[in-house]
Structure formats: C-alpha cells, structure tokens
Amino acid sequence: MSTRTPQLHKWPHKSEPTEESVTAEMKKHGFKVYDRQTIPGWFERSRHSHDFDEIRGALDGVTTFHFDSGPLTVEAGDILIIPAGVPHEVKTHNSRSFTAFKGSVTGARSVTEHGDGRGSLESLQGASEGEA
C-alpha cells in the first residue's frame, strides 16, 4: 500500500451486502480473509496497530475506527483498509453488534498493542472462557 492514510470505501452496490459479496470486494483490493468477528454494542478496543496492511469488510452494524487523523465510521458493506503501523482504537457508539470479515495482505493476523489490550481478540476469548 502506497499511502499511510486509512481508506474507507463505501458500499457501491444497490443491494444488501452478503458474505459472498463483501468477501469479493475485499479480494478485489488484494487481501485474504483470516477471520469473521462480531463485537457487541458499546464495544471499545484499546489503541493498537497491525503489523501488516489490514482490511475490514463490514457485514452488519456500525462501528467507528478512531485514527490520529480522525474517526471513520464503518457500516454494513463498507471496506476499510488500514495501513500497517497506523495506530487506532475502535468504539461502537450504540447498542448494536457489529460483524465484519478481517483480513490482511498475508492472510495472517499480527497486532502491536499501544494500550492495555482491552477488547483484543485475546481478551475477548479470555472473557468468554471465564464465563464458561
């Protein structure tokens, strides 16, 4: 990726996004999907960055990525490309869950924490294991 600025691509179709159509849009940008994640309403993810260029393909709901350059709100069908090393937080400012495919150029997940790790995949897994 030649730019260090996040890029938000609004859903270009006049149809509801589906798993297949969102995945196809992600692949057009050269990314490989590595996960599908649903986060709850009022979710907060502490400051972190990705070690590889990352992509989000939103399937349902709305959430906001907070970058130093300003917030970007992502809703169903949108594609967000996050350059490697760009710190950000994620906050859902409503009670609805948000579901998105996650991917990277390599197809692998690699994260650098800049905060306490709150809301990370690892902390979410630990919370669900503790409830079991």
* Silhouette: globular
Number of helices: 2
Radius of gyration based on Cα positions: 14 Å
Order of helices and strands: EHEEEEEEEEEH
* N→C terminal distance: 41 Å
Low-confidence stretches: none
Protein described:
This protein has about 130 residues and is of the alpha+beta class. It has a single domain (about 5-130), classed as Jelly Rolls, CATH 2.60.120. It contains 2 helices and 10 strands, in the order βαβββββββββα. It has a 5-stranded antiparallel β-sheet with strand order 1-7-4-9-2, with helices on one face. Strands 6-5-8-3-10 form a 5-stranded antiparallel β-sheet, with no helix packed on it. The longest helix has 11 residues, at about 120-130. The termini are far apart. The model has no long low-confidence stretch (mean pLDDT about 90).
